[in-house]
Amino acid sequence: DPGSGRRAAGRRQRLQGQPGLFQNPRSGALSMKTAILICPLLLAAASVHAQSADSARDALRQAATGDAFRIGYTQFRLAPQGVVSAAAKTADGQSVRVGEYAVRLQAAGARSARAVAAKPRLAAAVGDDGKAVVVTSTLNVYHRDPAALQAAVRASGGKLTYSSVAGGNGRIEFDSVDAAMRAMPTIQAIAGIKEVAPEIIEGEDAPN
To answer: Label partner for 46 (CA 20 to 30 A): which of 55, 127, 154, 206?
Structure first.
């Protein structure tokens, strides 16, 4: 009978649409309850991480009490307690990421005599705009006369790693950031030198 066949097909469709026969009717409720419980936890964790990151940035700014230098219109100050290392893949919120590096503050008393004597080639600094940068042990030197650049190399004891007569600039590398900073006044005082400043690494200044 064609009519009975259509009625049977209709019953099968209705049965397939009833969740009680083909799926657990409680699964939707459980999923909703789980989402309600998890969402506040995720939001709370994100809020704590953001607060921790802001605290790390603020602490680094306050720690920037070291030697000052200027690049263009921005003045920077070194953060003597800042320790620069390769950025970790997993964020911890306790350090500030600058490009591929992470800057973490370390108490002065916690640094060993060996670490202090190492004289790192990378250091942390903060600009007057509030952004963190990584300072290298290389100085960018701008001159009016190539002879002035050679005189700067001899007077400072650094190593010339780049020179451009057409560009009127060169780079002098030192064993440490401290040595580069000490050499700056000596180089700046040489006739024919227009400007000298550390080479810096800039980044997104984001929480790590």
So the answer is: 127
What are 122's strand-pairing partners?
136
Mean pLDDT of 162-191: 98
Non-local CB neighbours of 59 within 8 Å, separated by 6+ positions? 105
In sign, the C-alpha dihedral spanning 74, 76, 82, 83 is: positive
Give the DSSP per-residue string, 60-94: HHHH--S-EEEETTEEEEE-TTEEEEEPPSS--SS
Report the C-alpha gap between 180 and 136 in whole angstroms: 9
Rounded to two decimals, what is the model's pTM? 0.72
**CA gap 132, 206 in Å, rounded:** 9
